[in-house]
Design goal:
alpha/beta, Rossmann fold, 4 helices, 11% strand, flat
Length: 170
């Protein structure tokens, strides 16, 4: 009889233990969760300049591993000048292939600039009248107690003479 009572008590305690609800975790705020572990689409991106063709497959792998380690999600390759590994040669394409494969392995997307050198915006062959946009500024001091009766003149852009290329940039 004692054995039967012990078995019944054991079964009852087992049923009670499994019938109790498990402790629920507090709901996690999605904003906090995304801050702690950002989604891939929000990871920072960087420009990855290949300066003067001084690149190697081992160096590219190390660069990409460092990018992954600090949370960079995409790197845009920009070629600055020619140098040791000239752009668009077979060797250069093998470096691009290697970078894309390593980026895929590590989860770092790879992008390319649309042209080699000068960061897409031209070079010394571009005449001033063909160059990119100007930065202009205008200021008009007004009193909030009086209505504005004067018109605000449009600022005519002028070539910034203080930003001139240095001889060593050519």
């Amino acid at each position: 009889m004692s054995y039967i009572i012990k078995c019944l008590l054991f079964l009852i305690s087992l049923i009670c233990a499994t019938a109790l609800p498990l402790r629920e975790e507090a709901p996690v705020d999605p904003l906090v969760a995304d801050f702690i572990s950002p989604p891939a689409a929000t990871q920072p991106r960087c420009y990855w300049y290949w300066m003067n063709g001084h690149i190697s497959k081992n160096g590219l792998t190390k660069d990409l591993e460092a990018m992954k380690r600090v949370g960079i999600g995409e790197a845009y390759i920009g070629v600055i000048k020619g140098g040791a590994t000239k752009a668009l040669t077979e060797e250069w394409w093998s470096m691009i292939d290697h970078a894309v494969r390593e980026g895929t392995r590590l989860g770092v997307d790879i992008g390319l600039f649309n042209c080699p050198g000068w960061s897409q915006s031209g070079g010394p062959w571009v005449k001033p009248e063909q160059s990119m946009r100007y930065v202009v500024q205008s200021e008009k001091l007004v009193c909030i107690h009086n209505p504005l009766t004067q018109s605000i003149k449009r600022v005519i852009p002028v070539r910034c003479s203080y930003i001139t290329p240095r001889p060593e940039w050519r």
